Structures are given as C-alpha cells and as structure tokens.
Amino acid sequence: MQSWKLMAVLLSCSAIRKSYGTRVLFENLSLSLSEGERTGLIGPNGSGKTSLLEILAGNDVPDSGDRAIRKYSRLAYVPQDSLFAPEDTVLSVLSDAMAGVHLEEREKTIRIEMMLQRAGFEDPAAPAASLSGGWRKRLAIAAALVTSPDVLLLDEPTNHLDLDGILWLERAIAAANSCLVVTHDRYFLENVATRMVEINPAYPESAFQVNGNYSEFLERREEFFEAASKQQESLATKVRREVEWLRRGPKARTGKSKARIDAAGRLIDQYSAATARSRTATAKIDFTSLDRKTKVLIEAEDIGMTLGGRTLFRDLSLTLSPGVRIGLLGSNGSGKTTLLKILEGGLAPDEGTIRRADLLRVVSFAQDRTERLDLEVSLRRTLCPEGDSVIYRGRPIHVAGWANRFLFRSDQLEMPVSSLSGGERARVLIARLMLQTADVLLLDEPANDLDIPTLEVLEQSLLEFPGAIVLVSHDRYLLDRVSTIVIALDGSGEVGAFADYSQWEVSRGERIVEKAVVKEREAPASAPASQKKLSYIDQLEWDAMEEKILEAERELAAWHHEVQDASSDANRLPQAYEQFQQAQARVDELYERWAELDAKIAK
C-alpha cells in the first residue's frame, strides 16, 4: 500500500484548553493520531489525561480550541470504569456493540465468535455483572475491539487486568488500526507504544511528544530538560543583568530606555514562567519500620488452601526476614490475596503451619480501596481523624503539611474523599499506611492509579524499607525493581519460585503470546478421534483463518479511506474504487470459507 496508509490523520485536537474553576489542566495543547500509530499517554495524576480522552472521544468539549475526526471514521472509547446493566451477558455486550456496525448478520456472528475466542471467554451466557474486575475490563475492551474501530481510546485499561490480561491486551492493540492508551505500566508502553505523549505543566504547550517507545521517550525527555536547564541558566543571567540595569535607574527616559524596560519586563516574565514549569512536585513516601533485629518475622511451612472446591496452592513454604521482598505473581483468582490474608493472620490455611515473631507488626494495603475509605468523610478527617496534626516518627506534623507531602492542595482538605481521583485515593491510603510502624508490609496492588513519578518514589521507598515486604502487583517494572524473589501461583495448586519476573515469563514459554499459539496448534492433535471434525489441511486453514480475516478487514478499511480521499479526484477514484471492490470480495470470500469450516466442525 502507499505511504498515505501510515500517515493519514484520523483524530486530532488543536490548541485546546481545559480548566475546572480557576485550575487550568492544560492549554494550547495539540495532538494528532494517525493510522498505524499506537500512542501512549502519560502524565501526573490530575494533569487532565481523562479529560483529554473525553474531549477526543467527543464526550466533552474544550474551553477553547478544536477537535476533529476524519469523516466516516469509527471510534471506540473504553473509560476507566466498566459498568454493565444487571441483565447484560458476555454475548449480549458484544452483540450490542455490533448493533451499529453495517455488516450482514452472519458476518457479525462470526466476528463475535472470533472475539469470544480471542478474549478467552468460555461461557458467552455468563452475566457481565458476575465477572471479576479484570474480566469486566477485558469484556469492555473486547466490545470495543469487535467493532474493528479506526480509532481506539483506552483509559487505564491495565489497572484491573492480571498479567495474562495485560499480555492479551498487548497482542490485541498490536493488531488495532490506531489507538491511544492512558497507562502507567512502563513495560506495556515499552512493548506497545510507537509514540509517546506526556501532558504536564512542565512543558511550554502542556505536552511533550516523541516518536518511539517509552525508553526512547525517556532519552528525548532527558535531553529536553537538559536543554531547558541551560536555557533557564542563560535567562537567569540575562535577568540579573537587566535587574541591575533597572536598579541603576536610567536618568534619561528616552524611547530606547523605555523599550529596554519593557523588554526586561518580558524577560522576567519569561524566566518566571520557565521556573514555574520546572517545579514538578512528587509525593514523598517513606515507610516507618521498627527496625527490629529478629531474623525470622513470618515463616510458612507447607501451607495449602482450598476455596470453593478448588486448590489455590499447596506445599507452599516461605520465610520473611528483614530485607526480604517477595513479589507474588498469578492470574486473577489464583490465590494471591488469600495468601496475603493468611500471612496477615486474618485467615488460617487448610494445611501447614504459620509461625510469627512475638509482637509482630503487620501493615497491609488492600486492593479494594473503597472498603478502606469512607467516601463521605473529608480528606482532612481521613488523614487526621482527630485534632489538626498527625504523628509521624514520633513528631507532630500539621495535617495540611502532611497532605501537601502527598501533593494535595489546601483547598482539597474539606472535600469528601468521593471527589478524589483513583490516584489521589491511592495516595491517601499510602499516607495513612506511612503513619503505622511495621515489621512487615503486605501490599495488594499498590500501583493501581498511581502516576509514574509517584510510582518511582514508591519503588525507592520500598527498596529502602528495612523490614519484609510481600508485594502483589501486575506492574512488571515494579516487581522487577523491588522483588528479591518472585513466587508464582498458577491457580491449580502449583507454586514456583523465580529470581525475577523475566525468569518466570521465560519459564512459561518465552511469552504467553507464544504459548497461546502453541496451544492452538496442539489442540487439534491432542483431541480425541471422535472430536476431530476437520482434515489435517482444513485444520491448518482453520487455525490461520482468524488472522487472515483481520488482515483482509484492515486492507478493506484502508481502501475505504482511499476512496473517500479520492472522491474529488477523477484520476485516482476509478483505481481506488476497483481496489476497494477487490478487498470487499476478499473479505466476503474468507467469511464464506469460515462458515463452511465452522459447519464441518458443528456436524
């Protein structure tokens, strides 16, 4: 195909501004999303990432500036919270998503069946409301993907997904036409993004944009800040010189001196703006330990647990000593949170023994933050239930100063917790956690909703904590950096120990994507003879059919756009329309063949 296929702009915003009251989120921000681009959008909590997505999705309007979407382009948006009606099932959600797609019913049915397989849903009739948070998120993403959108917008999709779900999402996005993803998962950005955008008041036009993945973005951003620092030093020198000249008070108020005074004023304003942009605050996280000398804090020996008739783990032994940091891996429902409850003492194992040091102090961070926070209570009383000061490491700190340490403004103190974002609520819990003295920290998904600067501070604090840590997280970067050992639960009772996340991933067959391909190829060969409905040649064709259809549909969409572009060009239009018809015929042919093979299997 021609280069236009990669360069055509599908969605853009130009010089937009958004504020809430007197607080400006961003201004003069411009952004475009072209075909073939997978853009990662990052930024500090409260910088306006969700507001920007709402504007791009057409659900909100900017205070000023323009938003444009290419004519006839289909857009799908998956917000942070995945909500479904009580009567919704997995199948009905996908069917409702396809209602607005102009395809024959047979093609819609086949596409839905393909998506059910790709997303891993075994029971299409399962009520959507009964699914776990991770599977509800997977369903919402699948409902967006099944429509084959030209533009896909995702807001924090990795927050509720387990590692299998995240790797599935990486594969799904790699096959998407064009997408923009808000996420703080740095490995995800490294593996998926072809372009990075950070919105942050530290930049002159509210955003810094780089073509490349996350590591390339970090390099370019460092270069930008080095250049900005040198420019600021140069500005500071000029400002000092001009201030000295102004203080001398030029005697002759000539036109020339007045012009210099005006120029000096503009220079000072420019320096002030640059200085203000350079002050990007980060949360100050520092956990308090008893710093006890006991060698063994918690020891578990051959423990096992069964819930609902399913063995979560068995013969699990571990020792928590000062400086030991265990990362827990496993899919949703594999028993990670259950194991934390056993270590905390809130639940007894079915088998094995647990021994704890005398007067042990265990502090835990729960995954479900709404259970630990009263949403109607003000931020002030949530951080400081009584009086005006908290006690941190034996000394009082005023609640306003304590809130400021976690990047809360003074005007937020009287606001109810319900008005805070997910990232802000996470910081509230960490602020309360830090006031407790601990020997052992049990952290269940502490990284959810935290921005990257806060994640980096959290990582450093965990590395410096002298006690023991058990960390459950789907943030692979956090696990790799913090853990001294990784324990993996596979959900069927088996337990494995690994040096780090990467070793665990290799042990599963390089990557889960490769494992999935192997599984698909081996399934027909391992099936009983009575279940083999296809010949060897037909089975090979069936295995490759999904990818063939997806590629044919991408080609059809590309020629559809070309026909639209060439509609006013008499020279280009005939050839473009001919290619479009050929692409349509190819898609129809593949769907017909899919139906034939499906009918053979059903016999």
Which shape, going by the Cα principal axes? globular
The main sheet comes to: 6 strands, mixed
CATH class category name of the largest domain: Alpha Beta
CATH superfamily of the largest domain: P-loop containing nucleotide triphosphate hydrolases
- Tell me the CATH architecture of the largest domain: 3-Layer(aba) Sandwich
User: Average pLDDT, to the nearest integer?
Assistant: 82
- The CATH topology of the largest domain comes to Rossmann fold
In whole angstroms, how far apart are the ends? 40 Å
Task: Estimate the helix proportion, in percent.
Answer: 40-55%
| Structural class determined from secondary elements | alpha/beta
How many structural domains in the coordinates? 4
Uncertain segments of ≥5 residues (pLDDT<50)?
1-6, 510-520, 524-532
Number of strands: 22
Order of strands in the sheet with the most strands? 5-6-7-3-8-9
Report strand %: 15-25%
How would you describe the overall organization of this protein?
- The protein has 603 residues and is of the alpha/beta class.
- It has four domains: 4-201, P-loop containing nucleotide triphosphate hydrolases (Rossmann fold); 219-278; 288-507, Rossmann fold (3-Layer(aba) Sandwich); 527-602, Orthogonal Bundle (Helix Hairpins).
- It is built from 20 helices and 22 strands.
- A six-stranded mixed beta sheet has the order 5-6-7-3-8-9, with helices on both faces. A six-stranded mixed beta sheet has the order 15-19-20-13-21-22, sandwiched between helices.
- Strand 8 and strand 9 form a beta hairpin.
- Residues 1-6, 510-520 and 524-532 have low confidence and may be disordered.
